[in-house]
Amino acid sequence: MTKFSSKRPLTDAEEAEIQRMIASDPDAPEVTDEQAKNPMTFAEAMKRRPGRPKLDNAKEPVTLRLDPGTVARFKALGDNWRTIMADVLEHADSN
Fold first, then answer.
1. pTM: predicted TM-score of the whole model, two decimal places
2. Cα separation of 69 and 75, whole Å?
3. 74, 84 contact by CB (below 8 A)
């Protein structure tokens, strides 16, 4: 990596290296022309809701007390045991 100095103009090679470093940083993408036309103030950014958008049919969190043996049998089915349990409960009403 080249050490850059502000006391002299950059060469084309140095400028190209700086642009490559900027482009390779996934946490600081360059501002597009459209974004530059409509800058957002800090207050506007704080009003935005963090996280994912709300789903139309979001799952509902519940608390359920089950026999330890029942939970152990579902956990033994793998990491997706909660999904399996939800499928079993979904199909239980059809019996």
1. 0.42
2. 10
3. yes
